[in-house]
Amino acid sequence: MSDQVRHTDDEWRSLLSAEQFRVLRRAGTEPAFSGEYTDLEDDGVYRCAGCGAELFSSADKFHSGCGWPSFTRPAGPGVVTEHADHSFGMRRVEVRCARCEGHLGHVFTDGPEPTGLRYCINSVSLAFEDTRGR
């Protein structure tokens, strides 16, 4: 992605809420079933709360029961990056926004068809844009 967004920690703190900073910039996790988008079923796009990049579509959202919004795929190629995450003694794949490198959540291989993937994403990392009126 050529339009990278970079800020200092102080700049990010001024742009994000304390919880958004903790999750997006420090790879935190919001408590399960606490996020505002976990059960949202409206048509729209999910953007990065840090930089506004379009990351996921409601067309690819599903109820996984895991406690976080889940998607079968990103909105397009190259909008997210994946990184090995061995924190807490686990082997997971971290998902970040490709534009600002904000932590979004993790991707697992236990999702439904057609991809078999479950992108498990923190609501606080996202900003929903309703597209019903377009």
Provide a quick synopsis of the model:
The protein has about 130 residues and is mainly β.
What does this structure look like?
With 134 residues, this protein is mainly beta. It has one domain: Metal Binding Protein, Guanine Nucleotide Exchange Factor, Chain A. The protein is 11% helix and 30% strand. It contains two helices and nine strands, in the order H-H-E-E-E-E-E-E-E-E-E. The protein has helices at 9-15, 18-25, and strands spanning 44-48, 54-57, 61-62, 70-71, 80-85, 92-97, 103-108, 118-121, 126-130. The strands form two sheets. It has a six-stranded antiparallel β-sheet. The chain has a three-stranded antiparallel β-sheet with strand order 2-1-9, with no helix packed on it. A hairpin with a 5-residue loop joins strand 6 and strand 7 (103-108). The longest helix is centred in the N-terminal third of the chain and has 8 residues, at 18-25. The protein is globular.
